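Sequence in, structure out. Go.
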Amino acid sequence: MIQKMLASIGIGNAKVDTKLHHSRLTAGDIVSGVTQIVGGNVEQQIDTIYLTLYTTYIKEANDKKYYDKAVVARFTISEPFTIAAGEKREVPFSFNLPYTTPITRGKTKVWIQTELDIKLAVDPTDKDYIEVLPAPLAAEVIDAIRVLGFRMKSADCERAPYKLNSPLPFIQEFEYTATNAAYRRYLDELELTFINQSADHVELLLQIDRRARGLGGLFAEALDMDETYVRLTFKRSDMHTIKTTLQRTIENYMR
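Output:
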């Protein structure tokens, strides 16, 4: 009885450890591995094993910014079962890494947390960080912006504006500064957000922030009229025209 009471507060409880086959993944890849469970000092009923994909994002409250944790996706990898004291079990798993998973650049971190659902006990957890690379179309957009003469200044997840109808509470924003003199003369910065994507298409939002020029430019900057938002969608068949389309779009709003 004492052992059961201790297990209920996490002492002598079951332990869990997830081992991923690969920790460097591209959005859309299959995530696979095995979750190992070792029974504690007493028999325990485990209702479910979850693998939850998490990231952090910036929220604001009372004029203060802070990081909060957000669920990107959650996967159930087992049915209810009982694990005996000291028993060892392995549960293999595989699932597709969602295209909504943030890319791990800048301050963005992504991890998979293993969670056991145990009645009347502290749920054991295990955390595994992963590196997330952009899917092919998103990678092509990022590379095209670099080739055009922009350097990534920061990448972070922020609370999603209501008007974007994001399926998640956050969006990932990439900020760029111009390295090429022609763009630097006209632009303060360029911001990129991937709104929706799959294996066959990517929808993105560009924020083109023009540099103030003259008195009119200063007024426009003060009123945020120097910022232009442009939505673009690329399909797989557009792969070879992404750079040209981005260049034409950016230069169209430099005037």
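Check: The chain has five helices and 14 strands. The two ends are 77 Å apart (CA to CA).
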